[in-house]
Amino acid sequence: MLTSARQTLRTPFARLARRLHSTANPPRVLVTGSLGQLGTTMVNTLRAKFGSENIIASDIKKPSIEQRNTGPFVYADVLNYRALEQIVVDYGIDWVVHFSAILSAAGERNPSLGLNVNITGFQNVLDLAKAHNLRLLSPSTMGAFGPTTPKDSTPDLTIMRPNTIYGITKVHMELLGEYYQEKFQVDFRSLRYPGIISADSPPGGGTTDYAVDIFHAALKHNSYESFLDAGTRLPMAYIDDCIVGTMQLLEAPQEALTQRVYNVHACDFSPQELAGEIRRQHSDAFEIAYRPDFRQAIADTWPRTMADEAARRDWGWNPVFGTADIVRVMLDKLGPVYAATASPATTAEPLVEELPAAVVAS
Ligand SMILES: NC(=O)c1ccc[n+]([C@@H]2O[C@H](COP(=O)([O-])OP(=O)(O)OC[C@H]3O[C@@H](n4cnc5c(N)ncnc54)[C@H](O)[C@@H]3O)[C@@H](O)[C@H]2O)c1
Predict the structure, then answer these.
(1) Which of 42, 77, 174, 193 to mutate to test the pocket of ligand 1 (most atoms within 8 A of CB)?
(2) Does residue 244 belong to any structural domain of this protein?
(3) For the NAD-dependent epimerase/dehydratase domain, which residue ranges apply (predicted)?
(4) Under the phi-then-psi rule, with left for phi > 0, alpha for psi from -120 to 50, and beta for the rest, what region is 174?
């Protein structure tokens, strides 16, 4: 399992797409929130597979020149149903990948924004899917579980009483999607992601963002102050596994799906274990301190591990990156960026500037 992860450590998007099947009749896909942590890689992977012209990226932020040059990009506020509908009609959209959301920590900071984007925004894309016969993939999260959920090998079907705005809106999304599928035959699909780790795009305001920040800090200062406690074990996945899995669910035949929402688990670790692996692979001198903030209370309500047999059985979920692989690929990708900025002979800017301590995903 980990051997194949080694082979994909420097995977460009085309190779990521090759882990999936190709298709003769490509669908036209609208991706909402495409400039976020996951959207950026998802759009590149979809374009490598289905052709750039068939993937309509959208967000309310301005894309970089590079992002604009890789294919169509449109402004789309998911709170505006009519504007979304115009895009669906103008571009002949078949599938929507709905990535616009306000994540856990950001939702606790601004609950009304979280309710608005996660509930009204989802309602809009779901009604569009019903009106225009679209396939709709909208991810959920381990944050949909709560303090009374069993924490180990958390099953797909269990107690779900989250106590964050993010979690509440994601349970609402799961139930409403299932309702529309049952009542109106809307082809709704969802998967509960763990914390996602990526080097190419910064995380957007969640509780697992420490697991991205730590690499930037290690390479810059050889030290890190974690906002989660040493022993806080959470489920995690590297972005390549996340995107391959999302593509697999997106493309799975309807008949293969025995449920509409699936847990996906790749690996799990605590800040202390991650720091130990960074020490082993990067520098013995790497230091970590723990100063838990409000995100600790969120993390304390989430699973330590999730059971994902249904995803493996129904549509082939098969993550290949373990903890050591993730550390290796993050150091491989970010190391040269910080090495270049440290050299007085170069004027190159770092890919990711000092990440704001308060900003972090899941
Ligand atoms: N990243 C993770 O670790 C993680 C874990 C679990 C679940 N998820 C889920 O995956 C999906 C993508 O997450 P992400 O990490 O890329 O999030 P992100 O915060 O990085 O990106 C979300 C994007 O949504 C956009 N957005 C916000 N308001 C909008 C609006 N009104 N209209 C249109 N776009 C709007 C933002 O501009 C941003 O680009 C979300 O549904 C999230 O809940 C992510």
Answers:
(1) 193
(2) yes
(3) 29-264
(4) alpha
Cα angle 241, 211, 342; round to 5: 105
Residue 359 lies inside a defined structural domain of this protein: no
Q: Per-residue confidence at 18, pLDDT binned at 50, 70, 90?
A: low
Ligand 1 atom closest to 143 (CA): 6
**Domain range enclosing 278:** 2-342
Question: Is residue 79 in contact with ligand 1, taking CB distance under 6 Å?
Answer: yes
Model confidence, pTM: 0.91
138 lies in a domain?
Answer: yes
CB-CB contact of 234 with 302 (8 Å): yes
CA dist 222 and 105 (Å) reads: 26
Q: How many domains does one find in the chain?
A: 1
CATH, residue 333: 3.40.50.720
Ligand 1 and 361: CB distance under 6 A: yes
Whether 78 is in the pocket of ligand 1, judged by its Cβ within 6 Å, is yes
Q: Which tens digit of pLDDT belongs to each residue from 37-94?
A: 999 999 999 999 999 999 999 999 999 999 999 999 999 999 999 999 999 999 999 9
What is the distance between the alpha carbons of residues 193 and 140, in angstroms, rounded to a whole number? 6
Average pLDDT over residues 330-355: 66
Does residue 355 sit within a domain? no
Amino acid at 63: P
